[in-house]
Amino acid sequence: MEKVFRTKRMLHFGDCDISGTAYFPSYLNILNGVNEEFWAHIGYPWHEIIWKERWGTPTVHISSDFSSPSFFGDELEFEVTVIRVGRSSMTVHHEISCQGNKRWSSTQVLAASDLDKHCSIPWPADVREKLESLLVEQE
Fold this sequence. Notes:
globular; alpha+beta; 3-stranded antiparallel beta sheet
């Protein structure tokens, strides 16, 4: 399995303001969908871990930098890399571009969380092993 997860998203009308420019709060919703796709790609679809195993991966920190605007109809290309795996958290970096031009980036910390007790938990051993296999050294 490749260490960098790649996917694409079309920027829809509802993701934009009246001028047709991407509305930055919509970016976070899109990013959440990309994260959901990432977890399914590595073998842990949210509908299974949430409903059957009763753990999830809430965001505990996020920072974003916006380089240039995106517009209604643009196809955004996402690259997701795992840059840190802790006891109960992980840090992922997102690079978002359109036709090779950087649009924005985001660094996000997700935590393993018990959905019944509402507290952090250590990563299950198999999840930790998978996440560690995807670690990418930062430049």
